[in-house]
Amino acid sequence: MRQEHGAERSSVQPGDDVISTKRNYAMAAAAAGVAALIALVVSRFLDLPNISLVFLVAVLLVAIRSSKGPALLCAGLSFVIYGFQFLPPHGSVFIHREQDLLTLLFFLLVAVLTGDLAARHKRQYVQLQAAQRETQALLRFSERLASATDLATLLQLLGQRLGPEGVALRLVRVEAGTVQALAGNVDALTELERITACWAWTHGKPGGYDSHNLPHPHWWWWPVSSSEEPLALLGVRSLSAARLDDRLRCVVESSLHTFSLAVARIQLTQALADERIRAAAEQLRSALLASVSHDLRTPLTVLRGAIDTLALLDERLPSSERQELLRDTRLETERLDRYIQNLLDMTRLGQGALHLERDWVTPSDLLAAALQRLTPLLGSLQLKTEVPVALPLVYVQAALIEQALVNVIENAIRFSPVNGTIEARIFVAEDEVGFAICDQGPGIPEADQDRIFDMFYTAARGDRGGQGTGLGLSICKGMVVAHGGQVSVMPASGQGTCITLHLPVDEQPVGESEEGSTGCE
Amino acid sequence: MSDVKRILVIDDEAAIRKFLRISLASQNYQVIEAESGEGGLEQAALNGPDLVILDIGLPDQDGHAVLTRLREWSPVPVLMLSVRAGEGEKVRALDAGANDYVTKPFGVQELLARVRALLRASPAPNAALSAVEVDGLRVDLAYRQVTLNEMPIALTRKEYAVLAMLAAHAGRLVTQQQLLREVWGPTHVEHTHYLRIVVGRLRQKLGDDPAAPALIMTEVGVGYRLKAPLA
């Protein structure tokens, strides 16, 4: 079946066919003529029976070169000429002897048998050629499939192979009666198409419904499987005709095995990648748990110790020490609060697409809010702020960027030397607003600069204000990136580190024009 | 009635009620406690408190529902206790009639300041205020004049309107929706950027440091608050 279609496909166009048939018949006539001429020459030297052989050769040649029809024509013509010119009575086609009749029959028999034989041989040859072409095409196809890395590319390659007629392709899975898209076309399926997909999936056989009466062509489904279990369904729909023609079906079926192998390979690769991600997430979770238990307990220990000391030694403690212990408890609760906020933010970021409730915000308000929350932590540190007078508004979810700033500033506080200065600067560049937070800490080794935003990265020395959780900066990055911004780290002039949050400045909203209005005096 | 202000605390956490009771009592407020929304509404009806401190996360019904039911019959100032989770929730509560909020965990000083601001303003109608003085800033609401350290400040109509509204509620939170509705009109409630720009210019004219504002404080994502005048 496949080969037949291959033959059909590789045969010349119908128009050419007619021409070549005509040419064959002309050739048959010419061959008879040539044979007559040769026979005329030969008849001078040889007997009559030998002359018939000349014509026989002509019929044989025509039969081999073309097919039955021209061979029969050649045989007929040969006989007429033979009878007319060579058989007695000369100048007449009437046959007088039985043996001449036999000659005619012999001519015809040779023509039919040889013509048939030749035609079959030729057909086989053409088929062989087509099959070879097909094999080569399939080979090229499978080579291309092998280099594809996703399902969409596979479909694209299959589409190329199916030719320029235009077919829509899709890969789906059927689960519990619903069709889930894997790749390709995503047009909604009709109920009938859904049912045929389910049928093809459960029976593991190609299926579909098409008929010329349909208002639009339906999907035809082929199960894609490497073993018994179907991996996917390949849906093919003709874009032009109402139904898929047989040629397309054959090409799909011949490609299906190679295609299935490629799908299996890609799905396996994806499964492996998913597994790796799962493993990484698992690792992260356990690291997080370890961090949680450590980071929650440290402030709790301080709190418990300070409170117990106060309760136990109350009167005996000098007032300054009492105040100091109380101040510590307060700082620790604030630290706990920040930490819990970070954990919450992390789960928010971890849930993939962060839903942002954006609003227009004045950048300095964000810095002010973050600084205000951290004031108790500053202690002996100096704070220097620099905010330009004219600031564009940023379109962000304020609480998230505020938290990002809190994390960076807290980090700066933690690494600052006693009596150090922290610089918080807002600047406006071409299409961004930057928040630069600089400390005078030990700085970050250049090799580590890319890693400081990694989860659980904590610099070796960060003894001021306790050890960091290693979450703050990665959350900060997550928040900023979620807003389409980025974070960068640079050594500060002199000593220390500058961490900068870059927020994109969107097109500013159209303000109201109040410039001309009068004052209120 | 005596001059002692009564404060109703509706919170299911006994420990929170306890420290609120101690700290509020130290300021000579009389404290009434309720541990559920239902009980809180009952106490509010029975005792007619001057202020309600309401936890948004209550076990029997959430604070929003309590607030809505309370507002059906009482204009008593309500201070919400909320978590930092989202401005959305705070804004919802403020829209439903809460007057201010503090974020848990909050400092007692902050709470007492809010309580004072809310009690001072109630129930006197804002119109009764003729002028508000905060640090060097004086907003004369009757004569529509603003001076800073006795120097007149020229403000545009909108700038003045925003400042006047903040001044009338000095020390208390004014949500951005309230400001937008009042100053720009109900169709502009979403146009927060108008407000951002006007507040930015106001701060500039009043010499308020945008990175550490001392006069007009921003409650990010919620609203603004003018510094409370000295009591």
From TrEMBL, chain A:
Its EC number is 2.7.13.3. It catalyses: ATP + protein L-histidine = ADP + protein N-phospho-L-histidine. It is an enzyme of class 2 (transferase). It comes from the Bacteria. This is histidine kinase. Its main location: membrane. Keywords: ATP-binding, Kinase, Membrane, Nucleotide-binding, Phosphoprotein, Transferase, Transmembrane, Transmembrane helix, Two-component regulatory system. It comes from Pseudomonas matsuisoli. Pfam families: DUF4118, HATPase_c, HisKA. It is found in: Membrane. The chain crosses the membrane at residues 25-42, 71-89, 101-119. InterPro entries: GAF-like_dom_sf, HATPase_C_sf, HATPase_dom, His_kinase_dom, HisK_dim/P_dom, HisK_dim/P_sf, Histidine_kinase_KdpD, KdpD_sf. The keyword Coiled coil does not apply. PROSITE patterns: HIS_KIN. GO terms for molecular function: ATP binding; phosphorelay sensor kinase activity. One of its GO terms (cellular component) is plasma membrane. It is a multi-pass membrane protein. Residues 291-507 form the Histidine kinase domain.
UniProtKB/TrEMBL annotation, chain B:
One of its GO terms (biological process) is positive regulation of DNA-templated transcription. It holds the Pfam family Trans_reg_C. It is found in: Cytoplasm. Its main location: cytoplasm. Keywords: Cytoplasm, DNA-binding, Phosphoprotein, Transcription, Transcription regulation, Two-component regulatory system. One of its GO terms (molecular function) is identical protein binding. Residues 129-228 form the OmpR/PhoB-type domain. This is DNA-binding response regulator.
